[in-house]
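In this section we walk through a basic example: taking a raw amino acid sequence and producing a predicted 3D structure, encoded as discrete structure tokens. The instruction is simple. Fold the sequence below.
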Amino acid sequence: MKNQKMKRSNYQKMRQNGIAKCSVFMLALAAVFFTASCDDEEVGTLPTTTTGEVTDIADINAVISGTVTDNGGAEIIAMGICWTDEDKEPTTMDNFVAVGEFTKEGIAEEYWDYSVTLSGLTAKSDYKVRAYAANEAGTSYGETVAFSTKAGKTFHALTPDMIDTYTQEASEGQKRPWLIMILIPTGIRHGRVV
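The resulting token sequence is shown next.
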């Protein structure tokens, strides 16, 4: 009988401990959900941004514009243009140029309409670009725009074998003034060539 009583009392203790632990777990879970729902309200939604035109395309650079049209209810903390030369959607994990001046209040609205010059590109190459903007809710992207850089100039190094120089030796006689006149612009005065 004593053994049976002891088993019951242990069972009751375990049951009470389980209920207490479960209560603590449920309370903690409710606190996490409440905190998360409060944070979502403060953060807002993702900002909205659009990618503008690609202009002034050259061999190694191009100008791209972007505009943040809505901050999503939170401060804009980053924005700019991202790009890639691969066949995929560009993100800030690829290449990017940030714009705007960040302050404690985020990036001011006066910087939301901008243009960026991408430099150091490769001539005759395909690129994809798009605008990005970020707030506390995350990063959003504008439309992807594709363009190709132009062919660019080819420069060849000048070597000594490419240069031939000639000087007139004294034994070759006097320099001819009529040769000099051909090289110097002339004018006509009183019917004579001057």
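Looking at the output, two observations stand out. The helical segments are 2-43, 177-183. The chain has two helices and twelve strands. In the next section we compare this with other chains.
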